[in-house]
Amino acid sequence: MAPARAPMTDPSATAAAAVPAADAAPAALDVSRLAFAYPDGRQVLFGVDLQVAPGERVALLGPNGAGKTTLLLHLNGILGAVSGGTGTGAVTVAGVPLRRESLADVRRRVGIVFQDPDDQLFMPTVGDDVAFGPHNLGLRGAELDERVRWALAQVGMQDVVDRPPHHLSFGQRRRVAVATVLAMQPDVLVLDEPSSNLDPASRRELSEILTSLDVAMLMVTHDLPYALQLCPRSLLLDDGRIVADGPTRDLLADDELMRAHRLELPYGFDPLSVPGA
Known about the structure:
Strand order of the largest sheet: 6-7-8-3-9-10
CATH architecture: 3-Layer(aba) Sandwich
Number of strands: 10
CATH superfamily: P-loop containing nucleotide triphosphate hydrolases
Order of helices and strands: HEEEHEEHEHHHEHEHEEHH
Radius of gyration: 19 Å
Low-confidence stretches: 1-20
Mean pLDDT: 90
Largest sheet: 6 strands, mixed
């Protein structure tokens, strides 16, 4: 692999960020010097640093084997020192450090939507699936019903509340999976390959939904045009390290960077030709 390039950041912006305002809200997601090795000794993450501001949409890009899934599973303690494993560093969500005693709180604050919606939909009806998380938080009765209606309305699926999830199309199930996470009212929405296996119409509908949500978002994807469409900023992870951080359009237009880290745009796609990106 080619040597890692310096992150694409504006030095003046970095200096300004180093002295936040006294009343500034904490980052929605703050990962500091995160390193991790699996029990067989294979180290996958090497001192990862990243921040996502409240309401910010960020894409996490990188080739297969870069460590993206391992990083994703650290964000709510599925992997890491809290849940077993060998690692160092820190994860903080909306000002709450991820520790054993805060694990339940952090897992509510970080909503992960996995690539296969069937990994998240297991109840008899859509409404039951969306209610599952809030019910475990103690919501009952009218408050729980309202939370379910609200979450389904966010993804345009309020009319299927009584249907079995397996009667829905794949694209509809993915939207319901997003609703199950939104029902927990997270601070950060983490999406693993959200556009995979979607037809063009479903892909467009999901992008419109995700753009409309008022929540910080970290999107792990190989779909580079989708990253450009949804996320003004991207991080490039390779060999367990963040090797670039900057505007998505700039990263995708950097041919040398893309080749060095085995990323390829679709044939004929020019990120600089996309208006407003």
